[in-house]
Amino acid sequence: MLNIQCLNKIAEAGLAQLPSDRYQLTDQTADADAILVRSADLKELVFPSKLKVIARAGAGTNNIPISRCSEAGIVVFNTPGANANAVKELVLGALVLSCRPVIPAVNWIASLGIDPQITQRTEKEKSRFVGTELKGKTLGVIGLGAIGIQIANLAVALEMRVIGYDPYISVDAAWKLSREVQHEEKLESVLKKADFITLHVPQNAKTQNMINAEALALMKNKAVLLNFARGGLVEESAVVTALAEKQLRRYITDFPSPQLAGQSGVTIIPHLGASTEEAEENCAVMAVQELIDYLENGNIRHSVNLPDVVMERSGQARICCFHRNVPNMLAHISGMFSKKGINIENLVNRSQGDYAYTLLDVDTAEVERIAAELQEQEDILRVRPLF
Ligand SMILES: NC(=O)c1ccc[n+]([C@@H]2O[C@H](COP(=O)([O-])OP(=O)(O)OC[C@H]3O[C@@H](n4cnc5c(N)ncnc54)[C@H](O)[C@@H]3O)[C@@H](O)[C@H]2O)c1
Ligand SMILES: O=C(O)[C@H](O)COP(=O)(O)O
């Protein structure tokens, strides 16, 4: 039996994919072979030696200490694109709310209670809640991945002028992007030209505080900033100042913080971007499938610390080897097999940055000993024999 610990609520549709004869849920991290998680912070978590995999049912992995996982031979997965539609739809709502004062108007009506004059008062006073339209305005999309592309294309359909910035855009993403979206090579150009700016990049050392006082100063007067990516992308004290100085018209964020609470011009949503039934199911099903394929076949799809490595099963046993990306490692591993007279039927090896992964299918099931010996070699982080 393999033990799975859920550190957040994971949709039942995903958990139902775990065959009950091979998997059971545990609430003890010490017993966990695998962890399923959403946004719980794992940075201080002590990993038990039997923990082999962490699957994030969602996109952002800044809550997971990826380098520490790699050094412990733990593969980390996420579920790219599985919640993108949910975020896109909420960003659309936020765009509309940023230029139509629906929230204050609804609050005003609610404040009237049961007023017999409500219809007359509405028609007399609604002029206080006039807004503006999105059509014809410029939307700047920062980060053209699964979510950014969908928002850019949607905004084109809304007849907005759309400009996008993503120096690392994938070929696949570029194909999906509407030709109407203008590609900007510099972040500064987007900041200067857009009426609305929406952030869709991961939070990491390079993107932390990317919207700081200097960036805000470049923005158009009375621009609107939307943040459905991560709170740490934006320097909140600078946003509060820009709002007070009327440089920024509104900041709509999915990430509450004490610094933003109660600030005028700030609309805070309690991290609901991915909170739809559909997105929660999509993410949970995808995360569980990634986890099962890794645990049972050693295959890797959508890892954030290793490349995709998928090989059809052959032979009598498979050895999965997570190791550092150092010279001669493949020759060293295969040499150990040949010394023992074990025939390698199939082999695949891929690397990503400082780490690499090798799958070997062999013609014998007698592999426990060589697996144990491999595990002792320098630069080998985890070895798993599978039958
Ligand atoms: N609010 C929510 O509930 C919610 C839901 C899903 C994702 N997110 C956040 O949104 C982020 C994006 O999600 P996604 O699914 O689109 O991810 P993704 O990986 O598909 O896209 C991210 C894009 O950002 C680009 N990028 C990286 N660094 C950049 C930089 N410095 N400047 C410009 N572009 C850069 C990448 O090239 C990539 O195309 C996630 O990392 C997560 O933090 C939030
Ligand atoms: O990165 C993500 O996928 C989102 O921020 C969603 O987070 P959640 O799964 O905690 O809602």
Describe this protein's structure.
This protein has helices at residues 12-15, 66-71, 84-99, 102-112, 118-125, 146-157, 171-176, 187-193, 213-218, 236-244, 277-297, 329-339, 368-375; strands at residues 2-6, 23-25, 34-37, 53-56, 75-77, 138-142, 161-165, 182-183, 196-199, 223-227, 248-253, 266-268, 317-324, 344-352, 355-362, 380-386. It contains 13 helices and 16 strands. The model has no long low-confidence stretch (mean pLDDT 98). It starts with a strand and ends with a strand. The strands form three sheets. Strands 8-7-6-9-10-11-12 form a seven-stranded parallel β-sheet, with helices on both faces. A five-stranded parallel β-sheet has the order 2-1-3-4-5. The chain has a four-stranded antiparallel β-sheet with strand order 14-15-13-16, covered by helices on one side. The protein binds nicotinamide-adenine-dinucleotide and 3-phosphoglyceric acid.
Give a topology summary.
Blueprint: E1 2-6, H1 12-15, E2 23-25, E3 34-37, E4 53-56, H2 66-71, E5 75-77, H3 84-99, H4 102-112, H5 118-125, E6 138-142, H6 146-157, E7 161-165, H7 171-176, E8 182-183, H8 187-193, E9 196-199, H9 213-218, E10 223-227, H10 236-244, E11 248-253, E12 266-268, H11 277-297, E13 317-324, H12 329-339, E14 344-352, E15 355-362, H13 368-375, E16 380-386
Parallel strand pairs: 1-2, 1-3, 3-4, 4-5, 6-7, 6-9, 7-8, 9-10, 10-11, 11-12
Antiparallel strand pairs: 13-15, 13-16, 14-15
Nicotinamide-adenine-dinucleotide binds at residues 58-60, 80, 83-84, 87, 142-148, 165-169, 173, 200-203, 206-207, 228-230, 254, 271, 273-274.
